[in-house]
């Protein structure tokens, strides 16, 4: 900071700006939106067969054969083929059409005709065109690009058909979860992102300097959602969470979106019933409303239909260990975590998601209630993870919450957590404590599973990963 003015210092420009300006030729051809006619969305043209329509959008494909041009135009709502016939338009319109390049922006007017071959059922016979901007050669073309190149150009890659399909599916899942929860009587409760407490593993916290004090970015809004349920009953949050995990796998992000839900007075069986119903609803909504996007991604729909229609599997952690040891000679011990290889084995055995409950306490979080099974010496917790089918891995994590004040206090002490940070959370066990359960679902893991894309980096608009913070 500059002491005299209290304004941020002006940094030296790191590039020569003068070389960055576009030529007059590349600048937009209109001055403002008022030069455009009122338009409809492409999706709406379905109901305008036989009528004239005006649409705005971007060209993403051009085929030309001398006297006729086919422009593929998208506006986000849908895509449409626009046919330009030299004999049917003025010379000026034909020349404007000829000047178009991929990703040029424009407004077109024309007659909407039925077209049985189009996935949207219509095409446009062009009569007028307003070019907004002619785009220079688009960096992302038809040829194969490596993942680093695509991720460096994520802001442009998002326009591709496959990435649009994934984002549409993400949107569907978001609304499916939100609508389901609303119908089930849940109240949305926005939990803070700056938190003094750790919800899951303390080693994965992002530390933030908060005006000289230390705080963290949230790993999960769960603890705050628990406070909410004592006031509002069934509650949930849905927002970004952060994990400083040094994992570089196809299912780990540093910043991702989680929905945390809390079910007052519920135990683990009710929790599993609820999670199963919600997941079936998500899959059903995607099959119903995103069939086109799933087909773009070449997703095997029959696998999702099975998930929608068949009952999920429920196994204790102990049963899973025994099952994998006997079927795959996995050599797992009773205290082992279920990682990617084990999740893949489960997917070989089952075509539906698998709930794994009653985990060894030492690999789970502080807030889960402990117990011992008769004849067993292992300390377990009433936790449940849901492993999705087709090797997609864990997408939901949940548990009953310890609601006895003294037992929870013991656990804080054992883990050396700072009591003063959790004093408010402990109050919940002092004033009208109740048995309760909850779970979190990772949005991107769910999108990855349903859309079938291999890597989680394609399931979030701008991925934050171990070695990626741009764009
Ligand atoms: O299993 P987790 O860590 O559970 C919790 O945070 C609980 N507090 C939730 C609750 O009970 N309210 O995380 C929940 C889910 C996982 O099942 C997974 O889908 C996702 O969050 N997740 C990740 N997604 C992407 N990248 C990561 N690094 C993730 N870590 C967890
Ligand atoms: Mg988990």
From TrEMBL:
Q: Where is the Aminoacyl-transfer RNA synthetases class-II family profile domain?
A: 169-471
Q: GO BP, one example?
A: asparaginyl-tRNA aminoacylation
Q: Which GO terms describe its molecular function?
A: asparagine-tRNA ligase activity; ATP binding; nucleic acid binding
Bilayer-spanning residue ranges: none
Give the record's keywords alphabetically. Answer: Aminoacyl-tRNA synthetase, ATP-binding, Ligase, Nucleotide-binding, Protein biosynthesis
**Cited InterPro entries:** Aa-tRNA-synt_II, aa-tRNA-synth_II, aa-tRNA-synth_II/BPL/LPL, Asn-tRNA-ligase, Asp/Asn-tRNA-synth_IIb, NA-bd_OB-fold, NA-bd_OB_tRNA
The EC number(s) given in the record are 6.1.1.22
Record's family? Answer: Belongs to the class-II aminoacyl-tRNA synthetase family.
Q: What is this protein called?
A: Asparagine--tRNA ligase
Species, as recorded? candidate division WS6 bacterium OLB21
Q: What is the lineage of its organism?
A: Bacteria, Candidatus Dojkabacteria
